Amino acid sequence: MHFSHRTLFAVLVFGLIVALYLPERAEAGVTVQDRELVSKRRAGRGVYDYSYRLTIDNVGTTLNGVRVYVSCEADGTELVDDIVEFGDIAENAQVTSTDTFTLRQNRRIPFDPDCLLYEVGFATTVVLSGTVTDAPLSDAVVTGIVIRPDSGRPIIDSGRPIIETFSTVTDTEGNYTLEVEAVTEDDFITLEAQGTGDQENALLTSTVGSVGSLQEVGTSGSIIVDSGDAGSLTVTHITTAQDELVRRLNGGVLPTTDAELAALRSQVNGAELLTLASVIKTVIDNPGVVDLPAGINNTLELIQNEQVFDEFLVELISDPLLNDLLVTATQETAEQLNIGFSPDEIPGRLYAALRDDSPLTGSAYVFDFGDNGDGSFSFYRGTSDIIWALNADGEVEVSPTDPVFLFESFPTCSY
User: Fold this and answer.
1) 79 three-state secondary structure
2) What is the spatial distance between Cα 327 and Cα 331, in angstroms, rounded to a whole number?
3) Which of 366, 408, 360 is closest to 383 using CA atoms?
4) With 60 as the cut, is the pLDDT of residue 233 above it?
5) What are the residues facing 32 on neighbouring strands?
6) Please, are residues 312 and 279 in contact by the beta-carbon 8 Å criterion?
7) CA-CA distance, 404 to 318, in Å (whole number)?
8) Considering Cα of 331, then 340, then 305, then 361, what sign does the dihedral take?
């Protein structure tokens, strides 16, 4: 980055990035609570059919077309009728089915009820409302990508594919409302937003998570969620950078479960997140000034090609005008990420390498922080005692008590 010695002591800001956009998994969903034997009848020599009703709890919004798929992989047990139809289930309701499932059991082999597995399917619309923004992307095409669990059962019976896409267009303020069709709680949703016109270089992403994680809110057979309920519905340069770093951690593919996503996001490097997001913002905010490298069509392609990205970053830093734009984007992104320290995170020693305005570049700096707001600052011209304080924004403000002489340049004239 490009800094000046003259402003170095005004405010020294550094911190750790915490930027997880996945909503916590809601205590919501449909669960099987009880199984009731309805009938028993002989189906052959030593073989009997047993029919059962199910009782389910729906903790969350009203769901339409609910059905439970029953399976069992145990010797001596065969599912004759493996679907229990419930129809529409009201919000926060417990319902016992009139429909049944039937298993056929060989009486010579003891029945193990623990073999029974239940999978819930439904036909419910998920309504997502949010914003595509760095500056707002107007008339951007927003695509919701739904990836369904690999069991195949609900997908085959519902007639829906494993991967399905739904699209809409943002308004002039970058706002969108997108309806997607869900058939299981584990349906996993990601968003892509492609800019148009002078924003055509922008391709942003955000991973929303599972339908089950969104089910806490909604009415009338739909799960209705906005960015106030799930921050991931705001599609930004930051969510895009975060998705890319998660993808790298996961072997080049995005995760498809909430647990995997949360675990990977906890491993994202904050400095890398800030760098990727800031470069994306620099490109999007300055159309016609900051051009993408040859062969790169959009911001997502840029950050996914690590070699090209590194070369592009060097170009930005090396050009004074572009470097200033990058610094502005970095400062604004850092504010959005809410970078900052808590009192127990202040390091005993911090090393920094800054590019400055003087002819000496790549200068090294060392900050030592005492426990009582005192400490020292060292760089190539010497050492100064300092006082420091943590402000309300998590920023560490540093001031020298005996300033070291700083380099200054003066105009000269020749005779």
Assistant:
1) strand
2) 6
3) 366
4) yes
5) 56
6) yes
7) 28
8) positive
Q: What is residue 175's predicted lDDT score, i.e. its pLDDT?
A: 95
Tokens of 381: 């011209």
In angstroms, the Cα distances linking 51 to 40, 48, 153, 182, 257 are 7, 10, 21, 29, 33
Q: What is the DSSP string of 55-71?
A: EEEEESS-EEEEEEEEE
Find the helix or strand (DSSP H, E) in which 320 lies: helix 320-336
Contact 264, 252 (CB under 8 A): no
Q: Is the dihedral of CA 60, 61, 66, 69 positive or negative?
A: negative
Interaxial angle between packed helices 306-318 and 270-285, expressed in degrees from 0 to 180 and rounded to the nearest 10: 70
Element (H, E) at 274: helix 270-285
**pTM for this structure?**
0.69
Whole-angstrom distance, CA of residue 334 vs CA of residue 277: 9
Distance, in Å, from the CA atom of 73 to the CA atom of 214, rounded to the nearest integer, reads 31
Across all residues in the chain, what is the average pLDDT?
82
Mean pLDDT of 202-208: 96
Per-residue model confidence as pLDDT tens digits over 159-190: 556 788 999 999 999 999 999 988 778 889 99
Q: Which position has the token pair 């990420």?
A: 337
Do residues 205 and 239 lie in contact, with contact meaning Cβ atoms separated by under 8 Å? Answer: yes
Which two tokens mark 259?
């647990």
DSSP per residue over 253-264, as a string?
S---SHHHHHHH
Residue range 249-292, pLDDT digits in tens: 999 999 988 999 999 998 998 889 999 999 999 999 999 999 99
Rounded Cα distance between 79 and 102, Å, is 6
- Distance CA(189)–CA(202), nearest Å, equals 20
Residues 100-109 pLDDT 10s? 999 999 999 9
How far is it, in rounded angstroms, from Cα 127 to Cα 369?
50
Q: Which of 79, 87, 71, 78 is nearest to 151 (CA)?
A: 71
